[in-house]
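User: Here's a structure from my thesis project, written as structure tokens. My advisor, Dr. K., wants to see whether a designed sequence matches the one we expressed. Can you design one independently, without my sequence as a hint?
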């Protein structure tokens, strides 16, 4: 009788230890598959809209955003290749293709002539 109780107790302890070991290996790993896009526009018009497309589908925009009052735009994007098309009824803006990399910031700066003067990955 004592022997069976001891075996039963050891089985319970083994099961508890096994579950604890499994649970310890299930920590949530934080894996970020995003990067950041930072854009700056020099003397931008009030109606400026930035449209972001995936290079795989240039017909359907992913985002349409407007820059802040100071001409800056800062947003997270998933890792991938994108086409950026700024649009204004008053001005023509150069389109640009770029790649967003994991945990990196891609910086784009437009000058007073609405051309890209700086692109940093």
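Assistant: Designed independently from the structure alone:
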């Amino acid at each position: 009788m004592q022997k069976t109780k001891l075996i039963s107790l050891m089985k319970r302890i083994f099961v508890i230890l096994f579950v604890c070991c499994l649970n310890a290996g299930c920590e949530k790993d934080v894996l970020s598959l995003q990067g950041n896009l930072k854009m700056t526009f020099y003397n931008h018009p009030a109606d400026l809209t930035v449209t972001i497309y995936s290079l795989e589908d240039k017909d359907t925009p992913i985002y349409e955003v407007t820059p802040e009052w100071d001409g800056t735009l800062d947003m997270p994007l998933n890792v991938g290749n994108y086409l950026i098309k700024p649009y204004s009824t008053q001005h023509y803006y150069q389109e640009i293709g770029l790649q967003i990399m994991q945990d990196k910031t891609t910086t784009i700066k437009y000058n007073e002539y609405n051309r890209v003067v700086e692109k940093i990955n």
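When you compare it with your expressed construct, this may help: The chain has one domain: 34-120.
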